[in-house]
Write a structure and sequence with these properties.
11 strands, mainly beta, 105 residues, four-stranded antiparallel sheet
Length: 105
């Protein structure tokens, strides 16, 4: 396994349609499971910093619990204001039952 990737969770920790906040190299990241496929997106809303992992997940959209901004977990793109800046996305892979995220540079 490459040392560029770090284990953040087991697949059993994040059931389908659920998410989990993790931290990698000081970056707050939200790991999302959409129908068995995992995505990693910044966990700090680009509007005023709400914790996305505490929001709602509908399909591929994550909604910030503070002001309702929405983001596409696949691309980080804003799908509903008030946020205007996209979220960072992170490279993620599943190795067996391990969910791994590539360390941000």
């Amino acid at each position: 396994m490459s040392e560029d990737f770090v284990k953040v969770a087991d697949t059993k920790d994040i059931p389908s349609s659920q998410m989990k906040a993790v931290e990698v190299s000081g970056e707050k990241i939200c790991v999302v499971n959409v129908g068995g496929k995992y995505y990693a997106i910044g966990n700090v809303c680009t509007h005023v910093g709400g914790p996305l992992a505490e929001g709602r997940l509908e399909g591929y959209e994550i909604e910030c619990p503070w002001h309702g901004s929405k983001f596409d977990v696949r691309t980080g793109e804003v799908t509903r204001a008030p946020a205007r800046r996209s979220e960072s996305t992170y490279e993620l892979k599943v190795d067996g039952n391990n969910i791994l995220i590539k360390k941000p540079r």
